[in-house]
Amino acid sequence: MTFPIQRMRRMRRSENLRQLVSETQLSPKDLVQPLFIVEGEGVCEPVVSMPGVSRYSVDCAVDEAQRLFDLGILGVILFGIPKEKDAVGSGADAQDGIVQRAASALKASLPDLIVMTDVCLCEYTDHGHCGVLDGEEVLNDETLERLASTAVSHARAGADIVAPSDMMDGRVAAIRKALDDNGFELIPILSYAAKYASGFYGPFRDAAESTPSFGDRRSYQMDPPNRREAISEMCLDLEEGADMLMVKPAVAYLDILSDAREAFDVPLAAYHVSGEYAMVHAAAERGWIDGDRVMLETLISIKRAGADFIITYAAGAIAEKLA
Ligand code: PBG
Question: Is 315 contained in some domain?
Answer without folding.
Answer: no
